[in-house]
Design brief:
- This protein is mostly helical.
- The chain has four helices and no strands.
- The longest helix is centred in the middle third of the chain and has 34 residues.
- The chain is elongated, with a radius of gyration of 21 Å.
- The chain binds zinc ion (ZN).
- The site of zinc ion has 7 residues, from loops.
């Protein structure tokens, strides 16, 4: 067991990280899924809004595809390295090179994610015009901002981003997400 961990610690750590990430994301999305219907103001009554509902959803989907590609690449690198390390008869040098290549690949994917996200969000205009918060993602223990916007039409700062008419049925402003006033 000890030698296994010594040899495969990198792949093991990456796999554990991937599983925890997937579980937390699922939990956040689940937490957002159960809510009673909320009344909403009539269409056009909230002033000009930067997005139409479908337009916003399409832009969010582009960012999510970018996220899943980068995270998928990180997971793929860890599994490829695990697979190669499991092949018997490889020399120590080959194993070391495999782990190094996987580490570089995974780190490269992480960098692409960290560096590429800001420009992509700017290109798509996915920032709140009032408070400047990115409209996709958010800290780990909160409902993702794109879910808040899609379901309430508002940013957490209370700025309207979607016309109320574009909200799914039963959805509307939700004071749980708004600043206390
Ligand atoms: Zn805002």
């Amino acid at each position: 067991m000890q030698t296994f961990l010594e040899r495969y610690w990198f792949a093991v750590a990456l796999s554990i990280g991937a599983v925890i990430w997937a579980w937390r994301t699922r939990r956040r999305v689940r937490a957002a899924a159960h809510a009673p219907p909320r009344p909403r103001p009539p269409s056009g009554s909230v002033g000009p809004v930067p997005f139409r509902g479908a337009d916003f959803a399409a832009k969010v989907a582009i960012v999510q595809r970018f996220h899943s590609k980068a995270i998928g690449a990180m997971i793929a690198f860890s599994f490829v390295s695990l697979g190669l390390l499991a092949v018997p008869g490889l020399s120590h040098a080959t194993r070391a090179a495999t782990v190094l290549a996987a580490a570089v690949g995974a780190f490269g994917s992480f960098l692409a994610l960290a560096i590429g996200e800001g420009p992509l969000l700017r290109r798509l205009g996915l920032y709140c015009p009032q408070c400047g918060t990115p409209l996709v993602g958010g800290s780990d223990d909160r409902v993702p901002t794109e879910v808040v916007v899609c379901e309430t039409g508002q940013c957490r700062c209370s700025a309207w981003l979607l016309d109320p008419a574009d909200l799914p049925s039963g959805q509307g402003p939700d004071e749980r997400y708004l600043p206390l006033s």
